[in-house]
Every structure is written in structure tokens, then in C-alpha cells.
Amino acid sequence: MSSLKPTIGVFDSGFGGLTVLRALLPLIPDARYIYLGDTARLPYGSKSHETIARYAVSSAKFLHEQGADLLVIACNTATALAFEDIQRALPIPVIGVVEPGAQAALAAAESTPNQVLVLATTATVQSRAYTQALNALNLEATEKACPLLVPLVEEGWINHPVTDEVLKIYLTEALAQAPATNTLLLGCTHYPLLEPAIRRTLTSMQHPLTIIDAAKATARAVASHLGLPSQSPDLNATGPQCTFYATDSVEKFQFLGSNFLGQAVAKVNLIDLGG
Ligand code: DGL
Fold first, then answer.
1. Given ligand 1 and candidates 48, 150, 186, 256, which is best to mutate, with the most ligand atoms within 8 Å of its CB?
2. For residue 7, which phi and psi values (nearest 5 degrees)?
3. DSSP state, 257?
4. Cys-Cys with 223: which of 26, 32, 228, 235 at CB 3.0–4.6 Å?
5. Mean pLDDT highest for which of 125-139, 224-238, 261-275?
6. How far apart are CA 37 and CA 73, in angstroms?
């Protein structure tokens, strides 16, 4: 890897992974970023292990071919189900979101025993990857599949009564199962956008929780992998360069992606990775 300016490939099933890129940019501004959103094959979260692994490996290979010397799997579902497949397929370091998310939950642990509730897609929950990562750190874990949240966020219903109601149903069910929960891990790229709605809902339920955003934790893990500080940005940085690729509608990517990135998404290149 070039020690001067790393080329960081960031991959997600769609534009949700831009929440990870958003966390990376201020932390590691002196890098080249190549982002791929596999929008044609989204959502991954409702698909089988075999399909997710096939899609994820072809996406990861594309980023390596474009010059990435470090790959960040921003997608929780791809990390949970295909991390090892991707690692085997690529000759470069690979960082996923599950381990950093679990480590951040450990760092936030205030009392013992700690009970972490993970909200994620159906495939992520079925893989039990978060439970294994959290249990390995001696944290208790409960996982809750929230399949309606991705479409609601994609619809832009971030501050919407329907979304608040859906969150209330999911959180009530999950907390009834694990009433001692004190930490909430957002185990899906789309959920950081719902953080205000989640806080609002938890307040109305009188069940405040420490909220962990796996996107920010992953950005800190990437900085630490590169030997950079994980707190303050590099003040001598020349500014990040980002190139965006998507496998479907570039207009939708640009329009919705800006919500996730927190700034306008520049030119998006359309590519075809096959079926
Ligand atoms: N990127 C996925 C994740 O973080 C959510 C969207 C999808 O299901 O593809 O799990």
C-alpha cells in the first residue's frame, strides 16, 4: 500500500454505505476513495448467503481492479455473511463493520452485565455474526430484524410518523425480549439516519439506551489500521478525492446518496457487474 496516499475502496449494497464514507472523510481526508454501491442488486438483507457472497465478492473484486489497496465493507449484511469469502478473494486488507461495531459497544459499556440490542437486516440477524462478535467480548446480545426500516429510509421517511410507529413496534418487541438492554447497536448502513427518530422513540418509551453507530466505529478502525489517529483529522491533508460507481440509476444514487453522505454526491459512474 502507498504510504503517501492510500486508495480506500468502500463497498455497500447501495448508497447506505455512504454513512461510512461520511465518517471516513473527516478522519482520513488525505486518501483517495473509490465507492461502489451495488444498487442494481440491492437489497442484500433479504437474500441468501450464497447470493450475498456472490454479489459481494464481485463488487469487492471490482474495487480492487480500480486500484483499491484497502477494502472497507460498509455493508453490515455483506460483512456478516461474506467477510471471509471477500478476504479469500482479495490480496488486500479487508475491514468490515461488525467487529468495529462490537468493539465500540464494549468501549461504551458502563455497567455489568451489559446487554446489547442489535438492530439489523433479516440476513444479518440470521447469520448471528453480531451475537458471536459481542459474545466473544463477553457482552450479552439480542438481535432484532427490522426489514421495514431500509425501505422507509430509502423513501426519505426519516422524520415521519409512520417510521416512528414502526420503530416503536420493533423496539417494544425487542425490549420485551431483553428488558435489561442498555446499549443499542445500529447494525445496518441505513439506521444512522434514523438516530434522531430512534432517540425520540426510546424517550417516549422511557427506555433510554446508549446508541452505537457501527459506521463511525468502522472509520476509526480504518484510521487505526493505517496508523492514523482515530480522533482528530490530519491537518496537513490535501483533501479527499472520491470516485463513485453504481450498478443502477446514477440519478437516484446522486439524489438519495447526498442524504447519506451529508453533502452533494459528485458524478456517479454506471457499471455492470452482471447478475
Ligand atoms: N447495506 C445493508 C446493510 O447494512 C442494508 C441494505 C440492504 O439490505 O442491502 O445491512
1. 150
2. -105, 110
3. H
4. 228
5. 125-139
6. 11
